[in-house]
Amino acid sequence: MNLVKYYNDNITAIYQRVIALYNKGQPAYESSVDVPELSLIPVPEPGDKLNRAVYLWTIDCIRQLEAVINDLVAVYNDSGIIDYEVGDTPDIKLWLPERLVIDDTYIAKLSDDFDDCKKLLDQLDKNLQPFLVGMN
Description:
Elements: H1 3-25, H2 52-78, H3 104-132
Helix pairs in contact: 1-2, 1-3, 2-3
C-alpha cells in the first residue's frame, strides 16, 4: 500500500466535500462565512517509506483534517443547522498514529478515521436539507 497516496486521496475527497458543504450552506448561515482554502500538507522527502518525517506528516494530516471538519461543524452549529432531535453536532475526534509500524491495525484505524469523517459529513448534509427547501 502506498501510504502517502492513501492519505492524499482520502483527504482530498473529504476536503472537496467540506468545501461543497460550506458553499451549499451559505444561504442558511447566520452571519457571513468565508469558505476556507484547503490544501494538502506537502509530503517530506523521501515520501515513499515511513520514516520519522513521514510519521510526523501523517499526524499533521489527521490533525488538520480534524480541525477542518470541526470548523465546519462549528459553523453549522452556530447557524442552527443541526438535528433538532439530537442538538448540536459534536466535534469529531480522530485516531492519531502512535508508532512507525504500518500493520492491519494501523490501516483499519486510519480507514475508520476516513469513514467517520464521511459519516459526519453525510449527517451535516442531512441536517442542511430542511434549510434548502424552497431556496432553489
